[in-house]
Design brief:
The structure is a homodimer. In chain A, helix 3 crosses helix 4. Chain A starts with a helix and ends in an 8-residue tail after the last helix. Chain A has helices at residues 5-19, 29-36, 40-51, 77-85, 108-123, and strands spanning 56-59, 65-68. By secondary structure, chain A is mainly α. Chain A has a domain at 5-88 and 126-130: Arc Repressor Mutant, subunit A, CATH 1.10.10. Chain A contains 5 helices and 2 strands, in the order αααββαα. Chain A has a two-stranded antiparallel ribbon with strand order 1-2. Chain A binds chain B through residues 1-4, 7-8, 11, 15, 77, 85, 87-92, 106-107, 110-111, 113-114, 117-118, 121-122, 125, 130-131, and chain B through 1-4, 7-8, 11, 15, 77, 85, 87-92, 106-107, 110-111, 113-114, 117-118, 121-122, 125, 130-131. The structure holds a DNA duplex.
DNA sequence: GTAATTCCTACTAATTTAGTAGTAAAATAG
DNA sequence: CTATTTTACTACTAAATTAGTAGGAATTAC
């Protein structure tokens, strides 16, 4: 049971963006790629997932990049990880539409409880706390 | 981020063993395999991991199998899952000897906190509660 | 001694995660 | 207006992990 590098790199991206939040300019993936020595192509791919969450404004072309449009104090770590990992559920049965037998399953409450625990924890932390 | 079938099947095995705890006899994997429609060979493999935890007495040969030597009320779900999954750590950096830079890492406390949260939750539940 | 069982070693298949490649489209500086 | 920089899109490959299978040796009850 692991948080994938995708999730961890997503947080890395968000931390860079978070740190430049008050400066106002755009930060490009090229820049983050160089600072972190992570391939630009891989960051681009992670960004595709991350964009679902609608955290940023995008500017193409020279001096372009991304900037946060939400204050880091209002972005939870959970929302970042969920966007990046597509699936943050500990077992398939807890996702919506998951198990048709959940009301009759001896272990469903266990996995549901764990899943809630994880999500609550990650939602209790904000990006600001980890800049 | 998922609990693997290995972990879930390990719990399935332990639930069967837990339910027959007070009868005292041995329960074979063949029997569990038939009840649950899970391949015997796969259950055997999972049992190899599970045995590390020293939960049972083993009897080879006819009418043999496994029986718990620890009361289900004293077995935590965490101890089962950790035995089965080899690695219950959310990121590599939290395992012992993990990251050499942990004291200087901006996100180590996040992952460590999450990891502790998960383990504490699973250790707060006993097998008895899920028979 | 035979049937049922665990124990041991090795292998294969399937799935997921990680990472790369190439190009198109947009935006801007100059 | 054009060269450059950047995101956006599509498709692929490689590596690692997870899931599952196969065959037989050792042990035990009857």
């Amino acid at each position: 049971m692991k948080i994938s590098t995708k999730g961890r790199y997503a947080l890395t991206i968000m931390r860079h963006l978070g740190r430049s939040y008050h400066e106002g300019g755009y930060l490009s993936l090229t820049e983050i790629s160089e600072r972190e020595k992570i391939s630009l192509k891989y960051l681009e791919k992670i960004m595709i997932s991350l964009k679902k969450a609608d955290f940023f404004e995008v500017q193409k072309g020279k001096d372009g990049g991304y900037k946060l449009k939400v204050d880091p104090k209002d972005i939870t770590i959970g929302s970042i990880i969920r966007a990046a990992e597509e699936e943050l559920d500990i077992v398939d049965c807890v996702k919506s539409g998951g198990c048709p037998n959940k009301n009759n399953c001896g272990t469903y409450p266990l996995w549901k409880g764990l899943s809630d625990e994880i999500n609550d924890y990650l939602d209790s932390k904000t990006l600001k706390e980890y800049l």
